[in-house]
Design brief:
Blueprint: H1 3-8, E1 23-25, H2 27-58, H3 62-88, H4 96-107, H5 114-126, H6 148-156, E2 164-166, H7 168-171, H8 179-186, H9 188-207, H10 210-236, H11 257-263, H12 269-274, H13 290-300, H14 312-318
Antiparallel strand pairs: 1-2
Bound molecules: zinc ion (2 copies).
Length: 326
């Protein structure tokens, strides 16, 4: 494999996906996935580079920062509550309007369509750090061990471009089978565009000029998506390599504070692998989990039901007293 292949396709030809249940490799679906991810990454990183250039030449305004914070929080809820805890793990039940809203905010994250994200994530849990895992830093999707840095590169970035697709027939029942999620996913680019237009309107409303609108669009669009995406991707890469383990899970999942901060609580990744359906990931004393607090608030307001909780006695029984640092 040439260095160009290594960088761009991340092991396209390294194995045979048909040998691993739930994985489809190459073909038009694999190509479509790779092209779609390249387009989303281009929007995020070209937009972020543009914002940095404007920051050095014209500075950053309070309007830019307000757009960044507002849309980081909204789309962060789409990622943590929507993509992860609701669509992937059914940790609670929501009314249709909230389901739709979380799916729209999730699409704005530019991390692939919500149904595809959740379907990939279900495969991650089914095959964690083994053959079939879409983004393990330990082994490639065909179960071949990878070196430390090669593994981190694959888990954080390369896996999006390797032409391997999760088989809907195996993992798609609760994702592609969900009409709301399917509709939002089939119109994914519409919501990406909305995620750029809304901060542009925010900037125009508060700043009154097209220059202010453009700057707010960059900070409320690509820059917030960039930080959020690398936070979420750190759960797939760092949180399977660096951090502590509170539970025995049979995989390399770790609790990682940096990921906790960037993702509103999803960085308690070792806890999460032990109890995947738990609405709360910060299960142990002192483990802050903002997303879980918001779910509890929505439950208190009567907006969500069926919140999945792990009995405290079970947490106590399963928790180790050791902390493994790598
Ligand atoms: Zn999960
Ligand atoms: Zn994981």
């Amino acid at each position: 494999m040439s260095s160009a292949d290594w960088f761009l396709v991340d092991g396209w030809a390294r194995g045979n996906a048909t040998e691993v249940p739930g994985m489809l490799q190459g073909g038009s679906l694999g190509m479509l996935r790779t092209v779609s991810n390249v387009v989303q990454q281009a929007i995020i990183h070209i937009g972020t580079a543009w914002a940095i250039w404007l920051a050095f030449t014209k500075g950053v305004t309070a309007i830019d920062l307000s757009a960044f914070v507002l849309f980081y929080v909204l789309t962060g809820l789409g990622a943590s509550l929507g993509l992860h805890r609701l669509f992937s793990h059914q940790s609670f039940r929501s009314p249709r309007w909230l389901h739709f809203l979380l799916a729209v905010f999730a699409s704005m994250c530019m991390q692939g369509s919500p149904a595809r994200w959740a379907t990939d994530h279900q495969r991650h849990h089914a095959c964690s750090d083994k053959a079939g895992d879409p983004h393990s830093p330990i082994v490639d999707p065909f179960g071949q061990p990878m070196g430390y840095w090669r593994g981190l590169y694959h888990a954080h970035w390369g896996w999006m471009f390797n032409g391997v697709v999760t088989d809907k027939a195996v993992y798609g029942r609760t994702t592609w089978g969900d009409p709301v999620l399917r509709f939002v996913s089939n119109t994914h680019y519409l919501w990406i565009a909305l995620g750029l237009v809304l901060p542009w309107l925010w900037g125009l409303w508060l700043g009154g000029t097209y220059e202010a609108a453009l700057s707010a669009m960059l900070w409320g669009g690509p820059v917030r998506a960039c930080l959020m995406m690398h936070g979420v991707l750190s759960a797939t890469s760092l949180a399977h390599r660096v951090g502590s383990q509170a539970f025995t899970t049979g995989d390399h999942s770790r609790n990682n504070w940096l990921v906790v901060v960037l993702t509103f609580g999803d960085g308690w990744h070792n806890n999460h692998h032990k109890f995947p359906r738990s609405a709360r990931h910060g299960l142990l004393p002192g483990q802050i989990d903002i997303a879980a607090r918001i779910i509890e608030l929505l439950e208190w307001a009567g907006l969500v039901k069926g919140v999945v909780r792990v009995p405290p006695a079970m947490i106590e029984r399963e928790a180790q007293n050791i902390r493994v640092r790598v």
